[in-house]
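Try this one yourself first.
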């Protein structure tokens, strides 16, 4: 579990003033350079054997997600069963990393998964808007953990962040971290609402300083979600944080990643920016629902030489 303050950064969160000074002292982001590097890495070609490896790796990194008002116990059970055995015709297909559901569906997912090594993740803290009192948010987290959640995906208070109330955001993440107990914490920034790359970098550092196990791009509920550029920026942040503190933090892009080609681009970003230490589902995840189906179809095509089509996989 990350620590709130390492010796190198012990005084950063002592007050609003010291945290602001630190965050605004971070190097400014060159938007043109960032986007150009992300685009260039996205053009890398992947050979057949490497593609097969990348597809299996991507499957193993998925947080298979359903976050709809119409979710039912039956839908969640079916999703959990799919996470355990994504392709019932091929037992070599890896399971996904986790199933991500609302807190009231955690117990259903946990029961379906049994003792399997597929985590149950739950969104909390008044997801997706985060517009609730801290007491309500913490109760949301405690309910999910009590129901058996292995991981909590929280949203930051974007209104507080954009108003410059950085210590308030930090303190809330710390409180959620404590409420999580042994559950891992993913902190969602909703990068599409943060307006600038500089803000995304600052939010990343707040999350890491406050004890996040993962930093996550988005909820998937707004127009702009995960992009190669904002994910690259967050990967650079976790790399720099580990260099300064020795603490490794995971990254989770979420929303809008739908195809195998998309997923491989993100894996290339990981490999080229932070290296193989992060090429594992303990440190990198995809927040996705439709991505798995495309990965399964591409996997079948590599195995048989034929493209099976959308009726080969279940529709979630």
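Now uncover the answer:
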């Amino acid at each position: 579990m990350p620590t709130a303050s390492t010796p190198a950064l012990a005084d950063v969160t002592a007050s609003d003033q010291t945290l602001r000074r630190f965050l605004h002292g971070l190097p400014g982001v060159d938007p043109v350079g960032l986007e150009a590097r992300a685009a260039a890495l996205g053009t890398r070609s992947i050979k057949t054997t490497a593609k097969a490896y990348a597809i299996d790796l991507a499957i193993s990194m998925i947080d298979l997600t359903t976050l709809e008002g119409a979710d039912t116990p039956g839908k969640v059970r079916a999703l959990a069963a799919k996470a355990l055995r994504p392709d019932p015709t091929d037992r070599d297909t890896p399971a996904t990393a986790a199933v991500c559901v609302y807190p009231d569906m955690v117990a259903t997912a946990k029961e379906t998964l049994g003792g399997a090594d597929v985590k149950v993740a739950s969104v909390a803290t008044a997801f997706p808007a985060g517009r609730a009192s801290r007491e309500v948010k913490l109760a949301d987290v405690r309910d999910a953990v009590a129901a058996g959640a292995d991981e909590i995906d929280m949203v930051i208070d974007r209104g507080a962040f954009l108003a410059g109330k950085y210590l308030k955001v930090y303190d809330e993440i710390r409180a959620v971290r404590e409420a999580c107990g042994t559950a891992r914490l993913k902190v969602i920034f909703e990068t599409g609402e943060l307006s600038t790359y500089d803000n995304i970098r600052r939010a990343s550092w707040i999350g890491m300083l406050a004890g996040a196990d993962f930093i996550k791009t988005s909820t998937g509920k707004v127009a702009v979600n995960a992009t190669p550029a904002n994910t690259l920026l967050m990967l650079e942040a976790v790399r720099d944080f580990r260099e300064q503190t020795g603490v490794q933090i995971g990254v989770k892009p979420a929303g809008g990643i739908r195809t195998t080609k998309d997923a491989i681009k993100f894996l290339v970003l990981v490999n080229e920016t932070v290296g193989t230490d992060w090429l594992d589902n303990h440190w990198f995840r995809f927040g996705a629902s439709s991505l798995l189906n495309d990965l399964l179809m591409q996997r079948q095509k590599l195995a048989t030489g034929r493209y099976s089509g959308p009726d080969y996989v279940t529709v979630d």
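Discussion: Residues 250 and 282 are 7 Å apart (CA to CA). The chain is about 45% helix and 10% strand.
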